[in-house]
Design goal:
The chain is an alpha/beta fold and 565 residues long. 38% of the residues lie in helices and 15% in strands. The protein is built from 24 helices and 17 strands. A 6-stranded parallel beta sheet has the order 2-1-3-4-6-5, sandwiched between helices. Helix 7 links the parallel strand 5 and strand 6. It is globular.
Length: 565
């Protein structure tokens, strides 16, 4: 286990998240001799989400640790979340002795088989001599190709073993960064030059590949508007003249949908065409060609067949596209298409300046945008507040907007924020959370309080399951969603105070800005998480399709005139 700790340190791991238990104590004993900091979480799922947040913030492989049995099964949701969002992470579990595994020993479960569907690799360490090499391979697999999680199961007798290991003679295994072939790159550039209304769609793969600079260079050279997916938010600055918003069914801008529907070519980089982005594929594809760039070959054609597929790492692929464009055509100037997107951006905005009481949710995000600067890192999860966040929150830098995209586990935000802030203590971190999601893993507030991890929590509280209620509108089954907070439910302000953390409730729109400023100062002064609970209109709807089961079209946008010939 001392070799394992040495491998983790050399792979850039300085903080791990977990809960000790009898079946994992030899590893913990080794960690005490290392330079790795350990944060004891309150639930193993919280540990996985914290490691997830740490990984998203750093770009490195996050690590979470648990003991045997239910510790591993509690990690499954976090593994699924990391796999869905392409986050490199390693989960380490303790296990009963190898000789006891077939005897239904205490807390002995075949966690490797359980974890296989939600990991890139799940393995049980069989021999002490393999320890360093299995962990080296785990880090390589987690970072290679489409990144994702790995689970390593450690029987207690293997942990107690010894091995020959010289850290000075070892180093991380190389990770392949596949460059694209020249032929499809040339073909893609030709398609971009021939298109009248091209757009670039930047997915989470651009952020994972640290390819934002290459993306901007290509867009600026050819003057192509850029859209982002929810996972790609931050890949392109939203105040850039070429930013074309977001298309989709939920997290979208009106002018983003309008721009997408007027486009005739889409260069998608590191995007997986999730159903909440595409909606009805006939509408999504009609009238436009697609170029799909992805590091994972089997992603291309998975949702629909593109006109051109390019296999390659986003960074060298975007660089190759830009180099080829420079050799093929002079620097482009902003033309009619860029002007058209700018017109849509200025005319198809959603209101956020409401003064109504109860507070309308868009006003909350207006105040968030005005209070926090471009260097702020935001963390948010799933529900109506995520949809409003995607529609209204402004993001300017990669790795500054953390969101659980495909899996969408409630409760993700608080532990993920602990991971983000642990990675970069100097950064300002703001959590945007719903009242129901907050309660899923609210015990992790104790972790932030214990280790003096400060961040601001903005709770958008509509007092019941707003997204479920909105989804039920078309089914005439609006029941069992009211949480009755005013009738014996949770007082979130008192809850935070019970953890020793400051909190304030806001019910007037004019008080939001002052409360956010107070929370920022209070959080840093006391080195604690601070809650601002904003009570919003109970039945406020997010702008999206008519149902969550079969959303078939984009929100219509007025004043769509075709480009002149």
């Amino acid at each position: 286990m001392e070799a394992v700790a040495a491998v983790m340190e050399s792979e850039g791991v300085d903080t791990v998240f977990g809960i000790p238990g009898a079946a994992i104590l030899p590893l913990y004993a080794a960690l005490r001799k290392s330079g790795i900091k350990h944060l004891t979480v309150r639930h193993e799922e919280g540990g996985t989400h914290a490691a997830d947040g740490w990984s998203r913030a750093t770009g490195k492989v996050g690590v979470t640790i648990g003991t045997s049995g239910p510790a591993g099964t509690n990690m499954i949701t976090g593994l699924y979340t990391a796999l869905a969002d392409s986050i490199p992470m390693i989960c380490i579990t303790g296990q009963a002795e190898r000789a006891k595994l077939h005897q239904e020993a205490f807390q002995a479960v075949d966690i490797v088989e359980i974890a296989k569907p939600v990991t890139k690799w799940a393995v049980q360490l069989k021999e002490p001599a393999q320890a360093a090499w299995v962990f080296r391979e785990a880090f390589r697999i987690a970072r290679s190709g489409r990144p994702g999680p790995v689970l390593i199961d450690l029987p207690i007798d293997v942990q107690r073993g010894t091995c020959l290991y010289d850290a000075s003679a070892d180093a991380p295994l190389p990770v392949d960064v596949p460059a694209p072939r020249a032929q499809p790159v040339n073909a893609a550039v030709q398609m971009l030059l021939e298109a009248e209304r091209p757009i670039i769609l930047a997915g989470g793969g651009v952020i994972g590949a640290e390819a934002s600079d290459e993306l901007r260079q290509l867009a600026e050279y050819l003057q192509i508007p850029v859209q982002v997916t929810l996972m790609g938010k931050g890949a392109f600055p939203e105040d850039h003249p070429l930013f074309a918003g977001m298309a989709g069914l939920q997290t979208q801008t009106r002018w983003g949908n309008a721009s997408f529907l007027e486009s005739d070519l889409v260069l998608a980089v590191g995007a997986r065409f999730g159903d909440r982005h595409t909606g009805d594929l006939e509408t999504y594809r009609q009238g436009r060609k697609f170029i799909h760039v992805d590091i994972e070959p089997t992603q291309i054609g998975k949702v629909f067949e593109p006109d051109l597929g390019i296999v390659g790492h986003a960074k060298p692929t975007l660089a190759a596209l830009c180099d080829t464009a420079r050799r093929s055509a002079p620097q482009h100037s902003a033309g009619q298409w860029v002007e058209r997107v700018a017109h849509l951006r200025s005319t198809l905005l959603r209101r956020d300046d409401f003064d109504d009481v109860p507070i309308k949710p868009p006003r909350v995000f207006r105040e968030i945008n005005q209070t926090f600067g471009p260097d702020t890192t935001f963390v948010t999860a799933i529900g109506l507040y995520q949809i409003w966040s995607g529609q209204f929150q402004q993001t300017f830098k990669p790795r500054h907007y953390m969101v659980c995209g495909q899996a969408g586990p409630l409760g993700w935000e608080i532990p993920a924020a602990i991971g983000v802030k642990s990675a970069f203590p100097e950064k300002q971190v703001v959590v945007v959370v719903g009242d129901y999601s907050f309660q899923f893993l609210m015990e992790e507030i104790a972790v932030a309080a214990q280790y003096k991890i400060p961040f601001v929590i903005v709770m958008v509280n509509n007092e019941y399951l707003g997204l479920i209620r909105q989804a039920e509108l078309g089914y005439d089954m609006n029941y069992a969603v009211d949480l009755h907070y005013g009738e014996g439910g949770i007082d979130h302000v008192k809850l935070m105070e019970a953890f020793g953390c400051p909190a304030r409730r806001v019910e007037q729109p004019g008080d939001i800005a002052d409360a956010l400023s107070w929370a920022t100062l209070e959080s840093e002064a006391q080195q604690l998480p601070v809650l601002v609970e904003v009570m919003v209109e109970r039945e406020a709807n997010a702008a999206m399709g008519p149902s969550l089961n079969h959303i078939n079209e984009f929100e219509p946008a007025p004043d769509l005139v075709p480009l002149a010939d």
